[in-house]
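@channel sequence for tomorrow's demo:
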Amino acid sequence: AEQRSRVADRAAVIAQAEDELQQGALYALASNATTPEHFARLDEAAADNIGLAWRVAASRAARGEYDPEVVEELLERDPDPDAAVSGLIVRASRNLPEAKEEAWHALYVEHSVPAGLVLGTLTHAFWRPEQRDVLMPFTARYLEEIPKLAGGGMLKVFGLIGGMFPHVGDQEFLDAATAMARSEGVDPTVRAALLGGVDTLVRGLRARGELA
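structure tokens (generated this afternoon):
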């Protein structure tokens, strides 16, 4: 939380002073906001920026401040055909098993989330490291989906395997993912996605002090 606050403070300064960097700074502020002052600045900027408004709503939801009326209002304002997925992203940001379950169903059962930037945003909303306790059961479920997705095309490999690789885990999960990647007959693209995910997760866990 302390590091997030420092990032948010700096982003707020940049958004105020640098016109050409304002958009990126506001998005960084939205992703890391921790104080009422941060959110007051964001609410002002999001009044005429629907993309930022969605980001702020997701950030609030992750903090336990989910407001379904705000989501409905944004859906009415947003002409984007992927607006419904933006609403899903806000709900998936919540630290609740049912919120993660809804997103999981959309991704792996309905296959209703388009590939690309929207999928990447949902991935980050889903795998929030600070929500580790709620997310840990989904790490095993992630591995269970791999055999169903292998051979399903590059979009599935890079999106639902590589893109959705967990941002939380433990040594047991790392060992299982590595063993699956190195098992006989695994598609090379799947192997690469899994080993790349393992490497990134190991770095993240060590940085957070969760892995020796």
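heads up for whoever presents: DSSP finds twelve helices and no strands in the chain.
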